[in-house]
Design a protein that fits this description.
alpha/beta, ABC transporter transmembrane region fold, 2 domains, six-stranded mixed sheet
């Protein structure tokens, strides 16, 4: 319990920047409570003095006083509500910003362990519950304590016997509150898990509608959703039953309690121990005493439910960020772009076999270094190691003369551009996607990057050109168009190291050749790492490393590797089992290449 209170206190510190508004809100709450104390006293004076004495002037004064008190009470209540809403919304923004920033800084391994839907529930529902707790708890507690203290003081002065008797029912109320609070917490924890499953299901299926349609699985996926929603409904119904019984016991206890007090108060009136005005006032006050205790009960139950959300958010917030060890790391101000893998091996922490074993390779500026091999050989893992998405199990990786583990992640990735076969485009304009990752905008260089990627003519043909909106994930574009936009985006960054991971897999050979022709000048003074299985791409490489059985089995230039008739030759032969259509495409490519060579000779 102590640890939970410590966690709750750490979230209450978020209010500190808004202490002035919180203090003003609490002041308004206090004034509202004090004004609300006046109404029963006015009732007492009306019954005991005004009505028996037929005093019109005092009656008029008390009515005007009641109106003034109501106006001021409503005004201060509204001011307090406005300030609380302001703090609530600001806290929500601050906490979501902290959460989102932390998620982005977590290692990919940690993010892969969490489903997207689960993270969505944490950043929405869980944070909403925490903010509700933090922003509303303090005003409720202050208001309740002030109200309770004022009510007990007034009631005690009027009739201490009745007041003392009224307090006797409080322990019974807190016993049943504690009982229901524990059960609400259990249901809340299961509900959040179910909600995460549903969010994940929505995100996964809505992102893959094309696949669902192609397999005629609309009804199947709908049935799966219905099954998950039924499980959520079961928990919601369980929560409703708890609320019903909780409300029933609350109402029963308060009714019995109030009825007994009313009988005892009537007895004291009949026996002449108290006036009717006094008994009316004290009954109103005692009726108001129930509300503070009910508020305390609700706060207690809310805190127990919200600890589920606090634990879920805290799990992310306390996870070690990716750049934690970069506090004293070396900052790269300028690099040549030389890459060296020195006996690097890698396996996942829970695996028993190496993905890569004893990898030694070098790549330098002005050269295209290719890595090829069959699917699953570990080619893309080399890219992940270079960008430190994962760390080597054995060996070291160097950029220029620096051990990659000692280099700042931020500056390392600032010098590397990736073109992946899994193209990621964001909703927005083509211009916004091309400028992603570049701090300074240069229109001329952006257009040139698009020309080099053979996508400028297509963009220019669109009605809005570079300001054309594309759907989330580039849904409005073909696979080849997405890939060419990805190439243009990487080229526009003008970095020292360019990693092309199956970068032209969605392009035909002619377009691929055009792009490589355009990039000949761009490759100068830059390190190009080409990860591919396409023979047409490999011909552009100055050095080829062949990965087989997680090892580098061969290395050399294209022609030498073909002559050796080893692993590369077998790999190449398997890749060029061409259909008639592919042969025709190669003939077109040969004609195109011949024309380009002739143009270069004439120039």
């Amino acid at each position: 319990m102590r640890e939970r209170l410590r966690l709750l206190g750490s979230y209450f510190k978020l209010i500190l920047p808004y202490w002035d508004k919180s203090l003003l809100s609490l002041l308004c709450v206090g004034l509202t409570v004090l004004f609300s104390m006046a109404s029963p006293l006015i009732t007492k004076v009306l019954i005991d003095i005004v009505y028996p004495s037929h005093d019109i002037y005092l009656l008029t004064f008390l009515v005007i006083l009641g109106v003034v008190i109501f106006i001021f009470s409503t005004f201060f209540a509204d001011v307090s509500s406005y300030l609380d809403t302001y703090i609530h919304q600001t806290l929500s923004i601050d906490l979501r910003k902290k959460f989102f920033t932390k998620v982005l800084r977590l290692p990919l391994k940690s993010q892969h362990e969490k489903q997207v839907g689960d993270l969505m529930v944490r950043v929405t529902d869980d944070i909403d519950m925490i903010v509700d707790n933090v922003a509303e708890l303090l005003p409720v507690v202050v208001k309740t304590l002030l109200q309770l203290a004022a009510l007990l003081a007034i009631c005690w002065m009027i009739d201490w016997n009745l007041t003392l008797l009224a307090l006797g029912g409080i322990p019974f109320y807190f016993i049943q509150t504690r009982f229901f609070a524990k059960r609400f917490e259990e249901v809340q924890e299961r509900s959040q898990k179910r909600a995460s499953e549903v969010y994940t299901f929505y995100q996964e299926k809505m992102s893959n509608v094309k696949t669902i349609k192609s397999f005629n699985q609309e009804i199947y996926e709908t049935d799966r959703l219905i099954d998950k929603l039924k499980k959520m409904f079961t928990l919601a119904r369980e929560n409703l039953f708890l609320q019903f019984f909780n409300s029933f016991f609350d109402a029963t206890l308060i009714t019995l309690w109030t009825s007994f007090l009313a009988w005892f108060a009537g007895y004291r009136v009949i026996t002449g121990q108290i006036t009717i005005g006094e008994i009316m006032a004290i009954l109103i006050y005692l009726g108001q005493i129930h509300q503070p205790f009910m508020d305390f009960g609700e706060v207690y139950k809310a805190i127990n439910r919200n600890f589920v959300s606090i634990d879920r958010v805290e799990e992310i917030m306390t996870d070690e960020p990716e750049a934690f060890s970069d506090i004293k790391s070396f900052v790269l101000f300028q690099i040549d772009g030389r890459i060296k893998f020195d006996h690097v091996s890698f396996m996942y922490h829970d695996a028993t076999e190496f993905i890569l074993k004893d990898i030694c390779l070098e790549a330098g500026p002005g050269h295209v270094t290719a890595i090829c091999g069959t699917s699953g050989a570990g080619k893309s893992t080399i890219m992940d190691l270079l960008l430190r998405f994962v760390e080597p199990t054995e060996g070291k990786i160097y950029i220029d003369e620096h051990d990659l583990k000692q280099v700042s992640l931020m500056t390392l990735r600032a010098y590397i551009s990736i073109i992946s076969q899994d193209v990621v485009l964001f909703s927005g304009t083509i211009r916004e996607n091309l400028q992603y990752g570049r701090k300074q905008v240069d229109e001329e260089k952006m257009v040139q990057a698009a020309r080099n990627a053979e996508i400028h003519d297509f963009i220019a043909s669109l009605p809005a050109g570079y300001d054309t909106l594309i759907g989330e994930g580039g849904l409005d574009l073909s696979g080849g168009q997405k890939q060419r936009l990805s190439i243009a985006r990487a080229l526009y960054r003008e970095v020292k190291i360019l990693v092309m991971d199956e970068a032209t897999s969605a392009l035909d050979s002619i377009t691929e050749s055009k792009i490589y022709q355009n990039l000949k000048s761009h490759f100068q003074n830059r390190t190009v790492l080409l990860i591919t299985h396409r023979p047409s791409s490999l011909k552009n490489a100055d050095m080829i490393y062949v990965i087989s059985d997680n090892l580098i089995s061969e290395q050399g230039i294209f022609d030498d590797l073909i002559e050796k008739k080893g692993d590369f030759y077998s790999f190449y032969q398997a890749q060029i089992q061409e259909s008639e259509a592919e042969i025709n495409e190669k003939l077109k490519l040969a004609r195109y290449t011949g024309i380009k060579d002739l143009e270069e000779e004439e120039a």
